[in-house]
Each structure stands twice: as structure tokens, then as C-alpha cells.
């Protein structure tokens, strides 16, 4: 089978120009509607990599109030973000309790719930965040969540930007500067457009404080499938190009409006767009790739930089809750089991996906 990989054609069904209608992705009350009729026919939908199931857990009770899903690469970062948001919105835990990793039996991802906020790790790269997004979107459906907003908070390499700069992605391209996420499905190449919510981007940019000791910018993000060669680094195990060729490539990215490079933006933007979910990708640069390949900033500086995207997302969430009159929230995301037998089955099934 031969498939075109050009910018305008694909083999089989290409969704690159698809316009998604509201009634395809949400019910009249705003709750998430899946674009997969098979799920409604299943006796139980097991979210293997989250160690949750629609038959084993009361997902409406556990997650029905979720408005914001915030995701980042590492479990520790997202645990820290959960604690940060607890302080920001005045969320209090019952005496003698602590935040619980809801996905502790999956051994894949970590998830914490702080009122209407889910803080979940997505691992590294497109395949990892893609698996998570499929299951998180299904979780929103089973929990009957209304108009959720997704944020990705992470780190990146800047293109002509100093380390510590916050970048809000306006657009996402792959390593060939294609504005779609390409995936082989049943032997056919399917292209899904990489779109972020423009209104959400403007609202986030407006929340950047002029007194912040760093810049907050918007621009195109390049998503690479690899940390080393895919990003033009010279320090991988292999390198079949010169430093001059590397610099020509990076400078061409800059000329095309690319402000940063990371490894999840195309998948994140394409799948949230496919689901009709508002989303934004906010990263902090750890270095300017025009000046080198290796991160040289001290650990304490890097730790401070990594909080900067969290601060911006925190401002948005806090402002939203204040406008809705919801700022002081109790509860700590406990497990609500519907069927002990199925609960045990879900744990066992999740642990087999090593």
C-alpha cells in the first residue's frame, strides 16, 4: 500500500479539514459526548492505564465536578501542581488525610484531584500522552463532565528565547512543519488538524503580569518524535549532520514562527480538537536552542522556571472560579467503588499492561 505523506493529501480518510459540529462532541447540557458509538454498547469500559472502570467505580461521584484537566510530564511535577492549586483556590483536606494518587494501581500515570481540578502526569512523547488522552476523554464522558478545559504544562527548548520564558502555543507543527497529527489506522494514514482554542490563548496571554520577572509569549510550537536527532541535537548516540546544518534548520524554524520545541503538542492539540475540548499548551523554555543543546542552568533555577507555567494556569483557574463564585472547596478525591468484584478486576487488568 502506497500512501502520500505530502501536506495536502493522504491515503484513505483524512480529517485534516474536518469541521467538528457541537452536537458531535457534547450533549445539550454541555457534557462530553464520545465520537465512538461502541463505548455505549459495552458492559464495562476499563480505563486500563488509569486503573479505573465505568462498572467498577462511580465515576460521576468521583469526577463529575471536574472542570479543568491539567497534565504534565512527570508524576512529581503534577503532584506539586496539585499542592500548588490547593493553596491557590483554598482547597482543604479533612484532618488527618493527604492527597491521594487516584491511579496508584496503574503504575503508569499519576492523578490527583483538587476540587474541580485533575492534575495528571502524561509521560514523555506523543504515544504516551495519546494513550492518556483517549482514557481521560472517556473519563470525562463517563463522569458526565460539562465543558472541561484541558491544559498541558511542561518544559521545552526555546528558539531565540532565553531560558525561563513562558510560551503559550498558538499552533503546533510536526518536524516537517505540517499542521496536523498523522497516525496510521487500519493501514491508512489519517491526519487530524492541530488546533488550539484561540479565545483561551488570548485569555491566558492577558493574565501575564507585566511585573513578572520573565516574558510570556505566544507562537508556533514544533513537536518532535525524539529528544535527540528529531530536535537537531548534536549530543545523541547518533548524529549524521553537521553543526552548520543544525543551525540552518533551527534558523528556518525561527523564520517560520516557531518559538519552541517539545514532544507532545501535535497529539495534545489534535486529540482535544477531535473531542471538541478547549485546550492550551503552556511551556517554559529551559534554554535557547540557537545557543546550545544542553541545559546548563542550576537545579534551583530550573525548579523555579518550571513553576512559571503553573502560575499562569493557576491564575486562569482561580479567576474562573472567582467569577463563578466557587473558590473555597472541600474534599480530597476519594475512591468511590460501585462493585468490589469489578474494582479488583480493574486493578488486575491494569497491572497486566506493563
UniProtKB/TrEMBL annotation:
InterPro entries the UniProt entry points to: Nucleoside_phosphorylase_d, Nucleoside_phosphorylase_sf, Uridine_phosphorylase_euk
Region spans: Disordered: 1-29
UniProt-recorded name of the protein: Nucleoside phosphorylase domain-containing protein
Biased composition annotated in UniProt, kind: Polar residues: 1-17
Protein family (similarity comment): Belongs to the PNP/UDP phosphorylase family.
GO terms, biological process: nucleotide catabolic process; uridine catabolic process
Binding positions (substrate): 231, 233
Protein residues bound to phosphate: 108, 152-155
Basic and acidic residues bias: start-end ranges: 18-27
One GO CC annotation: cytosol
PANTHER family the record matches: FI09636P-RELATED, URIDINE PHOSPHORYLASE
Domain Nucleoside phosphorylase: 67-318
GO MF, any single term: uridine phosphorylase activity
Amino acid at each position: 500500500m502506497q500512501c502520500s505523506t505530502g501536506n495536502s493529501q493522504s491515503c484513505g480518510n483524512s480529517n485534516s479539514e474536518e469541521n467538528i459540529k457541537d452536537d458531535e462532541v457534547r450533549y445539550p447540557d454541555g457534557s462530553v459526548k464520545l465520537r465512538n458509538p461502541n463505548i455505549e454498547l459495552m458492559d464495562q469500559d476499563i480505563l486500563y492505564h488509569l486503573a479505573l472502570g465505568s462498572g467498577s467505580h462511580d465515576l460521576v461521584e468521583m469526577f463529575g465536578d471536574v472542570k479543568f484537566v491539567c497534565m504534565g510530564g512527570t508524576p512529581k511535577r503534577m503532584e506539586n501542581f496539585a499542592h500548588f492549586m490547593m493553596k491557590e483556590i483554598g482547597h482543604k483536606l479533612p484532618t488527618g488525610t493527604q492527597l491521594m494518587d487516584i491511579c496508584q494501581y496503574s503504575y503508569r500515570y499519576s492523578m490527583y484531584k483538587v476540587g474541580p481540578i485533575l492534575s495528571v502526569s502524561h509521560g514523555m512523547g506523543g504515544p504516551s500522552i495519546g494513550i492518556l488522552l483517549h482514557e481521560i476523554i472517556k473519563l470525562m464522558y463517563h463522569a458526565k463532565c460539562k465543558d472541561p478545559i484541558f491544559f498541558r504544562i511542561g518544559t521545552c527548548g526555546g528558539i531565540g528565547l532565553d531560558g525561563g520564558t513562558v510560551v503559550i502555543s498558538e499552533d503546533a507543527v510536526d518536524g516537517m512543519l505540517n499542521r496536523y497529527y498523522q497516525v496510521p489506522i487500519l493501514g491508512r494514514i489519517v491526519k487530524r488538524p492541530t488546533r488550539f482554542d484561540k479565545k483561551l490563548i488570548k485569555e491566558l496571554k492577558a493574565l501575564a503580569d507585566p511585573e513578572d520577572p520573565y516574558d510570556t509569549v505566544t507562537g508556533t510550537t514544533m513537536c518532535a518524535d525524539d529528544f535527540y536527532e528529531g530536535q537537531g541535537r548534536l549530543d545523541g548516540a547518533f548524529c549524521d549532520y553537521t553543526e552548520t546544518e543544525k543551525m540552518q534548520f533551527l534558523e528556518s524554524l525561527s523564520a517560520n514562527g516557531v518559538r519552541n520545541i517539545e514532544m507532545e503538542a501535535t497529539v495534545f492539540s489534535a486529540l482535544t480538537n477531535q473531542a471538541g475540548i478547549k485546550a492550551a499548551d503552556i511551556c517554559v523554555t529551559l534554554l535557547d536552542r540557537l545557543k546550545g543543546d544542553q541545559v546548563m542552568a542550576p537545579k534551583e533555577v530550573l525548579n523555579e522556571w518550571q513553576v512559571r507555567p503553573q502560575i499562569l494556569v493557576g491564575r486562569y483557574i482561580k479567576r474562573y472560579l472567582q467569577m463563578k463564585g466557587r473558590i473555597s472547596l472541600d474534599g480530597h478525591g476519594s475512591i468511590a467503588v460501585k462493585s468490589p468484584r469489578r474494582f479488583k478486576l480493574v486493578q488486575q487488568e491494569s497491572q497486566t499492561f506493563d
